[in-house]
Structure formats: structure tokens, C-alpha cells
Fold this protein.
Amino acid sequence: MLRAPWLPFGGCVRPAASQGLGLKRWRGRQSVAAAAGGNALRRRWRSDVAEGGTKWLKPAGRDSGIQIYNSLSRRKEPLVLGNADVVTWYSCGPTVYDHAHLGHACSYVKFDIIRRIITKIFGKEVVMVMGITDIDDKIIKRASEINISPVTLARFYEEDFKRDMKALKVLPPTISVRVTENIPQIIAFIQQIVNSGHGYATSKGNVYFDICSWGDRYGKLKHIYVDAEEEPVDSDKHHAKDFALWKAAKPEEICWDSPWGKGRPGWHIECSTISSLVFGQHLDIHTGGIDLAFPHHENEIAQCEAYHQCQQWGNYFLHSGHLHVKGSVKMSKSLKNYITIKDFLKKSSSDQFRMFCLRSGYKSAVEYTDESMSDAKNILQIISSFMSSANAYMKGQLTCDVVREDVLWERLSHTKEVIKAACADDFDTPRAVGAIMDLIHHGNRQLKAVTKEAASPRSAVVFGAIISYIQEFLNTTGITLDETQVAPEHGHSAMLSSVIDELVSFRIQVRDFALATAEATDKPAEGVVSSKEAKQQQEKRRQLLQEREPLLQACDRLRQDLAVYGINIKDRSTTSTWELGEPIKELEKS
């Protein structure tokens, strides 16, 4: 890939000749501007999915078995793939000028869950391309404020973003492309739009997309009311709603040479070029937050279809809902109501945030509150507790009444069907999580502990199958229940588990030793015949019990102390087990 060097602050770069998307090939294409005619500049029009060229076209190919809400058609459509086994996917990436916040995290995690479902449940290979906006007004402004070069700022926050995504367990894109490494290709892309009659250069060195030339094809994602006679104020645009393809350079601003003078790309053209470089004129899925639907994605569509001269460039547009805090429209830097990903992960885990995301549909706006995060944590704790109890039962550490295996096998089969159907229905993760919790409810009903040994054979296999499926679902959605606050940081999770096993085993021996004396005081010693000797024996054992009472108290204190760190010991009828839970936050703060 051709790279153009950076110059700090001022100075222009002369890019090498374009590769991949050549000017000669573009200039050979026929113009589609004539269809608009001169009247297009004087009429008023409204776009609609039912009018003209804005109607969604069902792509040719093979049905994936997934119904997906398509922002282009504004309804659920079958996901039809040109290649039956591969999904081509473009994701708008970050503008790297500051730390990412939970609003960004919510969108990326939700689409990561969808990507995992498509791959692991439906068996499709996903080729995902993400564009990295590393030149932008915000980057230039921030770099100037802290007196560093834009390239230094952009590279720092790009790596910071990648670390945040890794901490959230978001799978990396197949290909990640920086805008500044594709300036020649972007210039060539713009030139073709100008050649086709849908773009124009001004005397100031700016290049704009001509909205009126596109007719009623503009507005596929949002109904747009355009007044062609509306005049822009203090601008060199022909029309107020025309948008920038190329921005003329300002003094002391980083720039590149182009046929229209020194400048840099507009925001929308960057994604269009990057996607076309990899996928050409057809794209299966395009994703981003709902705030990107207009104007960003709308303008991408216009640019790509003007360049490729096609009726439909992207087949499916998916948009995630806003994450907002109580009393606010959304979480954003501009509103200064955001929580950075780093700050969030100091108090909560990526699993907890992922469960928070799973509990709402990806299209839905979701409110971030302490209560909603607490609900997500509780669900994970319920799942973890059930799996711990089921494991204890399988190992013979938990004694139960007769287990209705037929009921559990039926519930497991039903759960699998519900989850597959939910995932095929526009990735309905709330319904899938509900099915898992219902399965756990039925499992817990069968795991009611009893104090005496059951005469019937154990039903370990069915619980093993349930545990295996729950783990499979969690892995599919990117959740790993074996995380702790300590183990992932130091990579010693296996060692930590072994240490806790030994500690709990030692506590069992101590506790059994202390309780053995307590049980002996409940009945007279064998062979004792006189009441005097019986009283002496009982007194002796009472003294032993009193002496060993501190051992039981120490066992209780150990259980309480470990709970502070999220290690929960459960005393069963004949043994003890442990599981990882949440550390007690209040004690951490004191």
C-alpha cells in the first residue's frame, strides 16, 4: 500500500502516482450526470424508499438464513451473500484524537458480538475492513493545543484505541487502513467523481459533491428535503447541502498536492475510497453508530455509486443505538458526559460490559446507569454460580434428590433452538440471554441439595452437556467467566486456581476435624454403661469442642476474608467448593 509521509503542522506532501484506482480507468467511464438535466437545479424533491432509484435492491446470491434490519429498506431483510461462505464488511473506525469512551465501546462491542455470531453460529467467514481517520479537523486542533505534530497525536491515540478494543475483547479487523496512507487513491477517487459530473472544484481549491446532480437518489438512509434554490452563506458551494470531497489547505496546516491545489481529503470520501480499495463496487455489510447514518453514510453511498456507476453499492447498513446517561441524549465528548473505557475497566470487567450490551438489541438506545451495570453483573454471577454447583454435582461434592434427566435434556434442546432462532432474527441477543437464564433456572431446580446420600445413580452427563453448551454460548459472544481482577493482569490464572484449591482443601480438613468432635457429643460413647462415666465422657468432649471452636471460627473468617477478593467458598454437606465472584468494592475504597 502506498504511503504518503507526514510533515508536522505546515507543509505539503506531493503524493506519488495513484495505484489501484487509476485516473485513466476512471476517465474512461461514462457520465451519469445527464440524467438529472438542467431542471434538477431548479426543482424541489424528496427522497423516499419507494421513489425512483432509492428503492432497495435485493442482491443476487445465497440466503444466509439470517434476517437483518437494513437501514436502506427500513425493515428486516434476508441477508443474501454474493459469496455463500464469506461476508464482506466495512466498519467506520475511530477518529484518533482522544481516548475512546463507553459510547464508542458500546457500538464496537455490539458489532463484535454480531460478527462472532455470524462466524461461530452460522459458519461464515467475515472479512472486515476498518478505516482509521488519522487526519481531521479535530486531530489538527488537538495537536495544535498541546503543541505536538498531528502524526504523533494520531499514532498515539490509534494505539490507545487498539489497546482499549483488546481490553474489551473486540476482535481486530481483518484489515485496518489509515487515511494518510492512501492519499493518492483518494485523490483519484475524487477525480473520477468530478469527471462523471457529480463533483466540482472551486476557485478556492475546494472540491464538492454536487447533491443536485444526484437527483432523487440522495437520501437512501434518511428522507432529505432539498431546496435546489437554497443558497449557501459565506461558502463557495453551489448548494448549501453539497459536501466536501477535498478541502483547500489553511495556513500552517498539513496538506498534500492535488490537481485542485494543496489540501486534504474530506471525511466522507475517506471511507468510500478505503472500502472500494478492498471490496470494489459491492459490499455486503456496512456498520456504524446511528449518528453516522446521516450525513456520513448517506454521503458514502452517493460517492461510491457515482464512482462505480452502480445502482446499489452497499447491500446492508446496520446502525447501533446510542449509549446515553440519565438525562442526556447520548454519551459524547462534545457533551462532556462520557466515561473513558480505561476508567470503566478500573471498576468493572469487559465481561460485565459485554453482558450489558447483550441485554439490549444492537439497534436500541440504551441507558448507562449503576443499576443496569449491576444487573449485568448479577446475571454473570448467577451463571457462574450455577456452573459451579453443576460441577460440584458432577464431582460428587453436591448431593441431590433424583434428577429428572428427561426434563433437562428437553430444556437443553429447546434452549439451542431458541438461541439459534434468536440469532437468526436480527441478532436478538436479549432473547438468547433469556433462554440461557431459563435453562439455568431449570437446572437449579434439579440441584437442590440434601443432607443424605441419594440411593439413585448420579446424572452427571446431562449437567456436563448443559455446562458445555453455556460455555459455548458465552465463548461465542466473547465472554469468559474465569476472569478475575488479578489473574489476567499477571497471567497466573492456572496457578491462582491451584493455590485456592489447596487452601480450600486444607480448610475442609480443619473444619472436618472440628466438626467431628461436635457430632461425637450428640451420642454416648460406645461401652459406657454408668451415668457417671457417661457424664465424664461428655464433659471431656465438651472441653474438646470448646478448645476446637476457634478452628471453626477461623474457617468462617477465612471464608469471609476471601469473599472480599471475590473468592466465594460454599460449604456443602460433605465438602466445600469455591467459585470466583465480584470483589467487594466498598471495602476496596476504604
Observations:
- Residues 531-564 form the longest helix (34 residues).
